[in-house]
Amino acid sequence: MSSSSLSQRILWVLWPSFLVAAVAELFVFAVFDPVDLHLFGAPVATGRMPVYTIGFFFFWVVGAVAAALTVFLQRSPMEVNRCPLGAGDRPPGCPKRPDAHPAGAGPTASGGP
Question: pTM to 2 decimals?
């Protein structure tokens, strides 16, 4: 995978998840006031801004995980089955080595054609 493709995939994950986090933040904190939140039965003792910030990053991570799973699962069969080693660097017995022969197409066991 080239570096431009990797950076493009990272952007495919981070940008949509950022937008989802912004919308989720708006909807959740339009309904819940951070001052009224309780964590494990105790009221949250911080101000509104830290709760908004932690909430935003939580939603961003959740969106990024979902987007990363989508990007991972949309890979083509060619990308999944591609061998990262060059043809000459592959281990003996690998069917993709240049000296490997498909079944029935190579020399016979007696050495004849």
Answer: 0.65
